[in-house]
Design a protein that fits this description.
The chain is an all-alpha fold. It contains three helices and no strands.
Length: about 80
């Protein structure tokens, strides 16, 4: 297992944990913790894809990070 694999698996774990917490009602999908979890998780998966590229995975992770990033920016501008 390479460092890129570890980074990708960590990102996957963060995204899955964020999703699970959101579904269980523990965190709000439109608040910073959920958005940050999605942004950081997707970013980590993108880093892993820089080593072993897969176009479809890169597209979805980039979109995931972009959407979460926009949400974080909107929250920052509001406050």
């Amino acid at each position: 297992m390479t460092l890129y694999d570890i980074i990708g698996l960590a990102g996957t774990a963060v995204m899955l944990a964020t999703y699970g917490l959101t579904v269980m009602g523990r965190i709000d999908a439109q608040r910073a913790p959920a958005l940050a979890g999605n942004f950081l998780g997707a970013g980590a998966v993108l880093i892993s894809l820089s080593h072993d590229f897969n176009l479809s995975a890169a597209v979805i992770e980039a979109a995931w990070a972009l959407i979460a990033g926009v949400g974080l920016i909107r929250l920052a501008v509001k406050h």
